[in-house]
Amino acid sequence: MKPVDTSFCLAHLLVCVNQRHNSSLPCCASGDAEAIYQKLRGWIEAHNMLSRIWITRTECLGWCHVQGSTVAIYPQNIWVRAMTLEDCDALIEEHLRPLLNPASPTRR
Ligand code: FES
């Protein structure tokens, strides 16, 4: 086992795109999950930050009892649930754009 150097990673976004089959329980895929993933990834890519701001599709993150999708951002430990595609701009401005600024206190 070898540890991985992640010191260059500013943030890792976990975007739940879980699809429940054969269940009446809500799931992120029944909302905007894939579109949210694509929009956030597109923004990161447009800023040439894919190597420093990671984004991963995930299975259930455990907050799907409300309509909408779940996104977590680490190491900032920011969790957003009931997220819609329209919420992406606010998430970007509040949590991602500051990572582009070297003076940002959230940058490692
Ligand atoms: S299905 Fe997305 S948080 Fe559960």
From TrEMBL:
| InterPro entries in the record | Thioredoxin-like_sf (IPR036249)
**What domain of life does the native source organism fall in?**
Bacteria
What's the protein name? (2Fe-2S) ferredoxin domain-containing protein
UniProt source species = Lujinxingia vulgaris
